[in-house]
């Protein structure tokens, strides 16, 4: 990395942090797509879901988050 990009101040810790974040984001997206009502628009590369299903998902996810840290 330092040979190819000598001016970059990127360390191993930065790369590991990005990979950890990408894995976390992937797991969240994968969990959503496994639920009924969620879909993927390949043309626009985005998640597709109706408002009612999304609101229910946010409520359940928020409660799970709160109870995991209580």
Architecture overview:
By secondary structure, the protein is mainly alpha-helical. It has helices at residues 12-33, 51-68, and strands at 39-41, 46-48. It has a two-stranded antiparallel sheet with strand order 1-2. A hairpin with a 4-residue loop joins β1 and β2 (46-48). The longest helix has 22 residues, at 12-33. The chain is elongated and about 50 Å long. The mean pLDDT is 84.
Task: Provide a short characterization of the protein structure.
This protein has 70 residues and is mostly helical. The chain contains 2 helices and 2 strands.
Number of helices: 2
Structural class: mainly alpha
Distance between the termini: 42 Å
Determine the strand fraction and express it as a percent band: 5-15%
Poorly predicted regions are none
Adjacency order of strands in the biggest sheet = 1-2
Number of strands: 2
Question: Order of helices and strands, N to C?
Answer: HEEH
Q: Mean pLDDT, as a whole number?
A: 84
Largest sheet: 2 strands, antiparallel
What's the overall geometry?
elongated
Task: Give the fraction of residues assigned to helices.
Answer: 55-70%
Give me the secondary-structure topology:
Elements: H1 12-33, E1 39-41, E2 46-48, H2 51-68
Antiparallel strand pairs: 1-2
Considering the chains and any ligands shown, give keywords for the structure.
70 residues; mainly alpha; two-stranded antiparallel sheet; 2 helices; 2 strands; 57% helix
